[in-house]
Amino acid sequence: MNIYGASGHSKVIIEIVNSIGGSVQTIFDDDENISEVLNHSVIHSFPEVALNSGTVIAIGNNRIRKSVAKVFKGKIEKVLIHSAASVSESVKLGRGTVVMANASINAETIIGEHCILNTGSTVEHDCEIGDFVHISPNAALAGGVIIGEGSHIGIGAVVIPGIKIGRWVTIGAGAVIIKNIPDFATVVGNPGKIIKYTE
């Protein structure tokens, strides 16, 4: 398994690989100031062979992760699920998605490509999660929630059943979402209120 990215997020990816009995072969990062991560050496060139040898993108920022994914041109097929996560057999996970320790994904949920289901997050039944979404630690989505591409659900946020959240939305830490949220909105508070729009 190769890892693209040597930030803090890559440390968690390394531990997921370890939890399922895998091994990390090579870690790549553009930042030449980073020489190692969790006792693994980091190299700063990216050989073509890595495109076809089980590489996972370990970048937490949704927009950057999307831009890096374009380099791979659909060649990443691997899904990583921590051994301590709970994922229903009826869940569909897109390529490049990672599921961290103690995350729970329940029946008939569909998760897109290159998503992050972070530590202790909960995604209930029949949710639909778009590509490049990040569900932060301890965030909870009730049943039937729909989330558009690139949105970030902050740590400890709660979304009630049947809510639709648009593309590239930012939900602040601890927010409680009780109504639909349009594209590009930033939402904070309990109940959640839109404070700005960004593109």
Task: Please sum up the structure shown.
One of its GO terms (molecular function) is acyltransferase activity. The protein is mainly beta and 199 residues long. The protein has helices at residues 8-19, 62-72; strands spanning 2-4, 26-28, 36-37, 40-43, 55-57, 80-81, 86-87, 92-93, 98-99, 104-105, 110-111, 116-117, 122-123, 128-129, 134-135, 140-141, 146-147, 152-153, 158-159, 164-165, 170-171, 176-177, 185-188, 193-197.
What does this structure look like?
This protein has helices at 8-19, 62-72, and strands spanning 2-4, 26-28, 36-37, 40-43, 55-57, 80-81, 86-87, 92-93, 98-99, 104-105, 110-111, 116-117, 122-123, 128-129, 134-135, 140-141, 146-147, 152-153, 158-159, 164-165, 170-171, 176-177, 185-188, 193-197. It is mainly beta. The protein folds into 2 domains: 2-72, Rossmann fold; 80-188, Hexapeptide repeat proteins (UDP N-Acetylglucosamine Acyltransferase, domain 1, 3 Solenoid), CATH 2.160.10.10. It has an 8-stranded mixed β-sheet, covered by helices on one side. A 6-stranded parallel β-sheet has the order 7-10-13-16-19-22, with no helix packed on it. A 5-stranded mixed β-sheet has the order 3-4-2-1-5, with helices on both faces. A hairpin with a 4-residue loop joins strand 23 and strand 24. The chain is globular.
CATH architecture classification of the largest domain: 3 Solenoid
What's the story with the biggest beta sheet? 8 strands, mixed
Which topology of the largest domain does CATH recognise? UDP N-Acetylglucosamine Acyltransferase, domain 1
Average pLDDT score = 92
CATH C-level category of the largest domain: Mainly Beta
Instruction: Name the strands of the widest sheet in spatial order.
Output: 6-9-12-15-18-21-23-24
CATH superfamily membership of the largest domain: Hexapeptide repeat proteins
Rounded to the nearest angstrom, the radius of gyration is 17 Å
What number of structural domains do the residues give? 2
Stretches where pLDDT is under 50 for at least 5 consecutive residues are none
Gross geometry: globular
Percentage of β-strand residues: 25-35%
DSSP summary, beta strand count: 24
The N- to C-terminal Cα distance equals 34 Å
Q: Would you tell me the structural class of the helices and strands? A: mainly beta
Helix content: 10-25%
Q: How many helical elements?
A: 2
Organism: Gillisia limnaea (strain DSM 15749 / LMG 21470 / R-8282)
Family: Belongs to the transferase hexapeptide repeat family.
Keywords: Acyltransferase, Repeat, Transferase
Binding site for substrate: 7-9, 60
